[in-house]
Automatic annotation (TrEMBL):
Family in the record: Belongs to the UPF0749 family.
Family annotation (Pfam families): DUF881
Listed name of the protein: DUF881 domain-containing protein
Annotated organism of origin: Sulfobacillus benefaciens
GO CC, alphabetical: plasma membrane
Amino acid sequence: MGNSWRWSLILGMVCMVLGMGLSQQIRLVSLLNNTTRVQQGRILTFLVTRTVEQNQILENQVTNLRTRIHTLPPSRVTPAAEKLAVADRMAGLTSVVGPGVEVTLHDATKPSYPGEPPIYQLVHDQYVLHVVALLSAAGATAISIDGQRYVSTTSIFCAGPTIRINGINYGSPYVVLAVGPPQALLTALADDPDVQGWSQLVSISYRAENHLKVMGYRGQVQFNDARPAKI
């Protein structure tokens, strides 16, 4: 009788532990699925309609102005060069400095829950894209990821356990620098439900900085189909 009671107690404790683990796993799966659905529309809408269109127009203007400089008389070269410098800065081709925020996304360092897929502990491309979109919407005027300037032609996608940015593979941690109004950028990050949800899976930290330097885009700007518009 005594042994039967002890075995029942042990079995009950095992079932309780398994139930807690299963409940946690279900919560994590639900959290990831919900945040994934929410972020897809935001990223696609924002990146396509704002960043790509505006930056591509500016980059086309840079190309057009450079071409026109060679045909201008000396008396008109200086004003054209000044316009070119402004267009370069707006298109992300020159380095800028100013206040802003630094965001660090790091693969999870804490032990995983029983049965938790390892993929949940990795920072994914959608996390980085979403953070970039949030910062842009909150007023950031220049953004870089691990030193790579974010421009209209920037590509960000997963490549195994790493993320490929502008054709180069980077591993965790991923450091995003954004020049802009620090308080507005911090508020956008703190109030976003996706960032809050992903912070339960991986490490996401951010802080304001009084002085940041975001490097200019160092790659080649090529448009196979786009042509400079007439001004």
